[in-house]
């Protein structure tokens, strides 16, 4: 009942406003033509994302939100394109939108890149209307996405966000919509600028700074135009101990220096006393070591005594150098040559705490892994063991945290020509993209050298600290790396035109085109990072060398795609026909066929209707389309990965035992699947646009969307496999995915074999081996309403006001029939993250002469943490996640028209402001967001930040 009331409340203001303004439509049919004749102007044609056929300057048939330069500046986020998009278009919600916040355990999925997904569903990113290469991180199992962090914000002229499926025009990935980033061109003059921002909390200062310039000129005859933009920007990393909500990271690990799990008399967890030196091989009992003051036996959980936050980043460190150029030349009156070039170098950094050490290396002296465990227990006779029985020693070299660096070079060039002949326009282009990435992971542990160092007494895992000289001599730390590469080369051409006077309502317009492209993807890791091939081997399948590194194998694959598309616009009714109830009616239809070298060949249609019932003040539009997303090259042909399954908490054995959070993991092998099909979707869109002339400057837009996705690729949950096999044995549909003792070991023949293997291993899952892979079996559905109210008006003697309200309301966001609206659920859920029931963004600006005042309010209602217990009493860890309201304030001044020496200030613009001016605290959701205690991708991590932007035009 409460949910129903809240939805009605949300709709009420718009209904009241619409009803109040209905009289301004002018429903008296006989008067409409007279009104139109008085205001008749010649409208220019323009092309907008979502159609290759130009529209007049009236409501297009597609829902497009244009983020212009003023919108970009209003965000205060002049260095981060992802944040510009998120703050300008609140429909970018969920864990598909991730950038600088991905600086923890999941950082390897983006390697410092930034991904955007409209409404958390696959979204195509274009640059100047053409495709860009994916980030090379997908070559090592990361996400497939275009890295918008490689694009300098200062070079962006505008961003067009199409909020509807568009595969019928653009092909793969245009499922939820399209983000088309238009770079600056045809610029005349010169501009230099800079930006500085800082945030101070907990005694630390985070800083961001950037410099930029844009120059452009046109030849005297006007035939040639050159525009060049350059940018440098650098943002500091932010650590967890620098913010209150993430400061407490205790309870997350029991593996740190001084911890020993003792299995003798009075067994338990022991901790080396501060300042104590562990004696060598004294064969003392745990009680004797405690009595001697060497060890303590804490009566609190060991994990509560160690805080990870000083060693783990909350936000990436990021530096970018970029240059963009655009050139055009009028070859003849009817032919123009054009080209653009983008080069960007980004360097990102994030950090995790030092590699946890659980047990001895299994090939050190006097240790025992009982034949199957990935770690070893220390025998009583081992030279460094002060205890009289088997122990599991733990450690962590905190002075050597794991550091992750990604240096990415992006080169993109386009050459083309466009022109016209008669009633037809044409364009051809060649698009070259090359992205190279060097990924480095410092301070991974060389497992061979660590074993030798222990045997030679250079390293003592029982000690709290190590001798720095001996530690350096032991050479146990190394750097893992991978050279990843992604490329895209395409050639395209299209023709647009019309069949004049084909119908009483006017000309039939059309666009036809074709494209051929080749995509490549490769990864070359160092030999020490190769994937584990045999977990039973002491070296885990030599030559695997590193502990703590991301494992991968050499990978090199390509695909080709040939595409053909056509679009048709049919006028049904024109204003000149004066048909009652049909001022204008037209229908658009589009069809695209793609031929893939490695998977199915989709054929996708789209049909759109645009209807003006009375005049050009009120429009109705509707669309149906089909869209798809091709399987990634890595998921089709990637190397086999070997590691550990998720922790099987809740697994119920046939004898009734249920596994808790003390159970370890099974071994997991993940295969690629060349049989994967493209993911498909059906899109439904219905919208209304209201621009009453009686209220000049007011525009209202409501747009209903429905997306039904099928054949989404995903893998069956590890726990689901284990439970079904344990219960049903050989009759389980997953029986062939589980083996005992190795991946090629004993097959499952009956129920209870997993629990039997668990018992045989002394209470460990390490005799259980799972094989898993992606399949097309997941379905999802979402629907809701996008809304925009834009009002520009003047108040005499005060100034000009611009008010914009943008928002999204979800009716449903379901995956496999489970609805996630109003929840936050962490990164592990497909299309998950934080999915609020609605999200709104309101911006107001006042301009008075040279002065600008502005404010932006971003609101996210409360959500439910699905990972939390319903009985939790800790407000930071219960199911209720507080609502969030962030207010940005800014003031700007443009110097112009000055006299005397101050005339040299003409052209200077300065803007100062505060992001999250009232320092709204990040809502905590500790159960689902265990790495930082909150969803920092949605709510941010900085808190209040002050900024100053300045530019000078001359």
Automatic annotation (TrEMBL):
One of its GO terms (cellular component) is cell outer membrane. It is found in: Cell outer membrane. Residues 389-916 form the TonB-dependent receptor-like beta-barrel domain. Residues 1-28 form the signal peptide. Coiled coil: none annotated. The keyword Nucleotidyltransferase does not apply. Transmembrane segments: none annotated. Keywords: Cell outer membrane, Membrane, Receptor, Signal, TonB box, Transmembrane, Transmembrane beta strand, Transport. It is a multi-pass membrane protein. Residues 61-178 form the TonB-dependent receptor plug domain. The keyword Hydrolase does not apply. It comes from the Bacteria. InterPro entries: Beta-barrel_TonB (IPR000531), Beta-barrel_TonB_sf (IPR036942), Plug_dom (IPR012910), Plug_dom_sf (IPR037066), TonB-dep_rcpt-like (IPR039426), TonB_rcpt_CS (IPR010917). Belongs to the TonB-dependent receptor family. This is TonB-dependent receptor.
């Amino acid at each position: 009942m409460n949910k129903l009331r809240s939805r009605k409340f949300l709709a009420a203001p718009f209904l009241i406003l619409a009803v109040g303004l209905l009289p301004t439509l002018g429903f008296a049919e006989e008067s409409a033509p007279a009104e139109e004749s008085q205001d008749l102007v010649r409208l220019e044609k323009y092309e907008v994302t979502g159609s290759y056929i130009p529209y007049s300057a009236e409501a297009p048939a597609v829902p497009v939100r244009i983020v212009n330069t003023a919108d970009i500046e209003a965000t205060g986020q002049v260095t981060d394109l992802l944040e510009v998009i998120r703050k300008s278009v609140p429909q970018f919600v969920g864990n598909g939108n991730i950038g600088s916040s991905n600086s923890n355990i999941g950082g390897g999925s983006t390697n410092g890149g930034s991904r955007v997904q409209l409404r958390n569903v696959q979204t195509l990113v274009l640059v100047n209307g053409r495709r860009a290469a994916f980030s090379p991180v997908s070559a090592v199992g990361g996400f497939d996405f275009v890295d918008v962090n490689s694009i300098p914000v200062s070079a962006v002229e505008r961003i067009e966000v199409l909020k509807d499926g568009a595969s019928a025009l653009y092909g793969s990935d245009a499922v939820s919509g399209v983000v088309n980033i238009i770079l600056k061109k045809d610029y005349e003059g010169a501009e230099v600028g800079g930006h500085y921002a800082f945030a101070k909390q907990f005694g630390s200062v985070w800083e961001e700074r950037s410099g930029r310039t844009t120059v452009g000129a046109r030849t005297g005859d006007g035939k040639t135009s050159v525009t060049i933009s350059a940018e440098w920007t650098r943002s500091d990393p932010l650590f967890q101990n620098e913010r209150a909500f993430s400061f407490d990271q205790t309870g997350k690990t029991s593996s740190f220096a001084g911890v020993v799990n003792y299995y003798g008399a009075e067994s338990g967890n022991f901790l080396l006393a501060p300042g104590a030196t562990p004696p060598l091989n004294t064969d003392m009992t745990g009680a004797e070591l405690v009595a001697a003051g060497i060890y303590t036996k804490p009566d609190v959980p060991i994990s509560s005594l160690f805080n990870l936050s000083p060693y783990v980043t909350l936000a990436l460190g990021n530096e970018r150098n970029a240059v963009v150029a655009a050139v055009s030349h009028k070859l003849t009156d009817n032919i123009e040559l054009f080209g653009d070039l983008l080069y960007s170098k980004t360097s990102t950094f994030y950090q995790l705490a030092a590699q946890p050490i659980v047990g001895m290396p299994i090939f050190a002296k006097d240790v025992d892994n009982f034949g199957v465990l990935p770690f070893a227990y220390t025998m009583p006779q081992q030279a460094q063991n002060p205890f009289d029985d088997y122990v599991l020693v733990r450690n962590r070299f905190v002075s050597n945290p794991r550091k992750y660096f990604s240096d990415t070079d992006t080169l993109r060039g386009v050459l083309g020509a466009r022109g016209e002949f008669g009633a037809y326009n044409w364009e051809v282009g060649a698009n070259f993209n090359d992205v190279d990435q060097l990924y480095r992971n410092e301070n991974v542990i060389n497992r061979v050298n660590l074993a030798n160092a222990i045997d030679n007494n250079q390293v003592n895992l029982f000690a709290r600290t190590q001798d720095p000289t001996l530690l350096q001599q032991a050479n146990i730390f190394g750097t893992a790396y991978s050279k990843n590469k992604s490329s895209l080369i395409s050639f395209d051409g299209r023709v647009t035109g019309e069949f004049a006077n084909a119908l009483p309502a006017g000309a039939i317009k059309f666009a036809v085109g074709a494209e051929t492209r080749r995509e490549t993807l490769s990864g070359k890791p160092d030999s020490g990072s190769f994937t584990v091939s045999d977990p039973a081997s002491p070296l885990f399948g030599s030559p695997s060398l590193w502990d703590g590194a991301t494992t991968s194998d050499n990978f090199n694959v390509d695909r080709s795609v040939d595409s053909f598309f056509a679009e048709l616009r049919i006028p049904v009714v024109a204003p000149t026909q004066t048909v009652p109830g049909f001022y204008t009616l037209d229908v658009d239809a589009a069809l695209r066929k793609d031929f893939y070298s490695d998977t199915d060949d989709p054929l996708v249609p789209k049909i759109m209707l645009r209807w003006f019932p009375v005049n050009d003040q009120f429009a109705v539009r509707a669309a149906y389309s089909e869209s798809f997303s091709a399987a990634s090259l890595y998921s089709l042909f990637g190397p086999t990965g070997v590691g550990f399954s998720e922790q099987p908490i809740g697994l119920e054995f046939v004898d009734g035992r249920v596994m808790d959070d003390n159970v370890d993991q099974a071994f997991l092998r993940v295969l690629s699947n060349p049989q994967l099909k493209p993911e498909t979707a059906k899109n439904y869109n219905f919208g209304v646009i209201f621009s009453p002339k009686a209220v000049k400057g007011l525009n209202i837009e409501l747009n209903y969307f429905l997306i039904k996705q099928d054949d989404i690729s995903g893998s069956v949950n590890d726990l689901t496999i284990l439970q079904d096999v344990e219960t049903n044995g050989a009759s389980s549909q997953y029986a062939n995915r589980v083996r005992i003792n190795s991946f090629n070991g004993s097959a499952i023949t009956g129920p209870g074999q997993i629990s039997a293997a668990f018992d045989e291993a002394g209470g460990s899952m390490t005799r259980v081996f799972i094989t898993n892979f992606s399949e097309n079996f997941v379905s999802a559905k979402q629907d809701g309403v996008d809304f925009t109210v834009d009002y520009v008006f003047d108040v005499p003697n005060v100034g000009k006001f611009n008010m914009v309200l943008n928002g999204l309301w979800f009716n449903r966001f379901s995956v496999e029939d489970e609805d996630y609206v109003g929840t936050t659920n962490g990164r592990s859920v497909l299309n998950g993250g934080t999915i609020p029931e609605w999200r709104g963004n309101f911006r107001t600006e006042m301009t008075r002469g040279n002065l600008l005042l502005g404010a932006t309010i971003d609101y996210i209602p409360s959500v439910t943490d699905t990972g939390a217990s319903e009985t939790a009493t800790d407000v930071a860890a219960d199911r209720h996640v507080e609502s969030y309201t962030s207010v940005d304030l800014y003031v700007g001044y443009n110097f112009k028209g000055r006299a005397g020496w101050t005339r040299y200030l003409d052209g200077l613009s300065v803007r100062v402001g505060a992001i999250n001016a009232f320092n709204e605290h990040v809502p905590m959701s500790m159960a689902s967001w265990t790495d930082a205690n909150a969803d920092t991708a949605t709510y941010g991590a900085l808190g209040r930040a002050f900024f100053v932007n300045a530019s000078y035009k001359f």
